[in-house]
Write a structure and sequence with these properties.
- Helices cover about 85% and strands about 0% of the residues.
- The chain has four helices and no strands.
Length: about 240
Amino acid sequence: MAALRRGAACLRFLISSGRVLYCRSRREAVTKFGKWSHIVGTGVAGGALCAVPFKQDENLTHEFLIRQAASVVSDSSSTFLSRTTFALIHAFSEYSKAVHTLIALQKRYLESLGKLSQSQEDSIWQLIIGQRAEVKDKQERCQQYESTWAHAIKTCEMAAEAAFISGAEQASVTVQTNIELAKFQVEEVRKLSQDADKKLAEAKAMEVERLASYAASLESTNDEEEIPDAYLRED
């Protein structure tokens, strides 16, 4: 019984302590909430809506905050330009590889004219058709990324101008440097793509010429086979 009484007394003590802690923590929470509510309410009354409690440092000027925001915009636009530049360079490289593969297949086919069976010719033609479709897909991907890259260039140009006007000269210079570097890199890989297009056009012209010559030779051979031997003998 003594142990039971001690246990009940201990339980009453814990319950009492819990009530005290609960009341104290509730008063502290209300006090803190009132403090933050006053800060947030002041911000709203002043025309600024804050998602979180915010107290501006008196040493921070509007000019400083504007320069800081312009620098953040410059960094973001540079990141956007970097991502699109890498994507465009990769797309141009993949397109050039696809074009050179197509040229190699066409060259292989022209060199094998008259030497392959019908099934072998059909197999090569299926490869050529599939590669042409891939070249077209790669070309469309290049056009898509190039459009996005052009928008990234414009965004960076506006960000650089905004940074310069805001007084963040260093951020403006950095963005302009990134623009020039991106243009240089894209121009270099674009030259490779244009060179591949030129070689593809030459390969197509050669293909047309070789096929026409091969067809003419076949017609000539068929005509000779149809002429009777009597007309080929000299009197």
